[in-house]
Design a protein that fits this description.
By secondary structure, the protein is mainly α. Helix content is 83%, strand content 0%. The protein has 13 helices and no strands. Helix 1 packs antiparallel against helix 3, helix 1 packs parallel to helix 4 and helix 2 crosses helix 3. The chain is globular and about 55 Å long.
Length: 397
């Protein structure tokens, strides 16, 4: 049975490698800090490893765009997978804290290359009228990886040890690379300004209004999405719930999130990006403002479900807007800067929440993030027109 478009074109080239890489990457989110704690016994060092992984992503976002322009979407994607394989194999062999720290940063860099290459490849492989649905499937795959990866990683680490766990992660990435090598087309976008880092400056200047407006919207969405992951368990602890109950609340929120992911992609393709982008931000703001008002289980559950609704509606919106806005002759450099803006929001959400909580209160932190979201909504409504090409509106299958 043939899959409907665009999924038939992306099954082997993107979806299967994405599932394998999602399990490997998400498993690392659990195993890496546990391994760091195992070799040093220091919780601060374990937390630092995840921070360094985020630093690696931020440092490689823009260079990955330049490399993609030089070697093509398939080349940079395979390069990111190869980097992940090398990191996993090295972690299976070395346990020196300094080497592990460098490998954590390298793993983040490899992830940045993979994410950018995949996004750029999908921009070319399917029409704009199908981008929302394609990205929604990838988002669902990532959510599945977030479930399977930590579960599998934790079981293997407990039963067999850390070295076999890293070897298993490397094997998944290797299979993903082989599948992509065999099935993905070679795509090398036209490049107007060369492939040097200097071309990034030209891209930022030429697209400065887009980055200052639509980019701010993307940053605000990513900030709220990342902050919610920290705020829900923190408020649960504040009102006296145990870890198991908080886990149930978070899981119910995630179920609503996953249920809405693909419908949000369909709506994005049929109605336009603003029809999911603006509502998702408004829902996020309501949920963030409701969290400080929650004084018991049901209040927290209601706020968490609202946030799950917002996250489901936001599925793929930042990536798809970047794909819409990327100029054809400078696509990869643009996407590199675009991903950097979004990743700053993803990293900044928990950081800002932590700083404001330490300086004032958890409630103020939640309201502050909601306030940033409100600024993003205003910019979206007043300064960012519909990004989907007019010819593609309503043309989804």
């Amino acid at each position: 049975m043939r899959l409907p478009s665009p999924h038939d074109q992306l099954l082997k080239s993107i979806y299967i490698p994405s599932l394998l890489m999602a399990i490997s990457n998400q498993g690392m989110m659990l195993v890496l800090p546990l391994y760091a704690l195992h070799i040093t016994g220091d919780p601060a060092y374990a937390a630092l490893m995840m921070g360094l992984r985020g630093v690696g992503i931020l440092l490689l976002d823009v260079p990955a765009g330049v490399l993609a322009a030089r070697f093509g979407d398939k080349g940079i994607s395979i390069g990111g997978l190869a980097c992940n394989i090398g990191v996993m194999l090295s972690l299976a062999v070395w346990s020196d804290p300094w080497i592990v720290a460098l490998l954590a940063m390298a793993q983040g860099g490899g992830a940045a290359a993979w994410f950018l290459g995949r996004q750029s490849y999908m921009t070319d492989a399917c029409p704009p009228s199908a981008w929302g649905r394609a990205i929604a499937v990838v988002a669902g795959i990532n959510r599945g990886g977030a479930l399977l990866g930590p579960l599998a990683g934790g079981i293997v680490a407990e039963w067999l040890g850390y070295a076999p766990t890293f070897l298993a992660g490397a094997s998944l990435s290797a299979v993903a690379a082989v599948v992509m090598l065999a099935n993905a087309k070679r795509v090398r976008p036209a490049v107007a300004d060369g492939t040097r880092l200097a071309s990034i400056g030209h891209t930022i200047f030429a697209q400065r209004r887009v980055f200052a407006t639509a980019g701010l919207v993307g940053l605000a969405i990513q900030l709220m999405r990342a902050a919610r992951q920290l705020l829900v368990p923190l408020f649960g602890t504040l009102i006296g719930l145990d870890a198991a109950t908080i886990g149930v609340v978070y899981s119910l929120s995630a179920v609503l999130d996953m249920a809405l992911s693909y419908p949000a992609g369909v709506a994005m393709d049929r109605l336009g990006r603003r029809w999911t982008g603006i509502p998702c931000m408004l829902v996020f703001i309501v949920g963030l403002c409701a969290l400080p008002l929650a004084h018991g289980l049901y209040g927290l559950l209601a706020a968490a479900l609202v946030l799950g609704l917002g996250n489901g509606l936001s599925t793929g919106i930042v990536m798809v807007m970047g794909m819409d806005l990327a100029p054809a002759d400078n696509r990869n450099q643009f996407l590199g800067v675009w991903r950097l803006i979004g990743d700053v929001g993803g990293v900044g959400g928990p950081l800002l929440t932590g700083l404001l909580t330490g300086a004032a209160s958890l409630g103020l932190a939640s309201f502050a993030v909601a306030g940033i979201g409100a600024v993003g909504v205003a910019v979206f409504m007043l300064l960012v027109p519909e990004t989907q090409p007019a010819a593609e509106l309503g043309s989804a299958d």
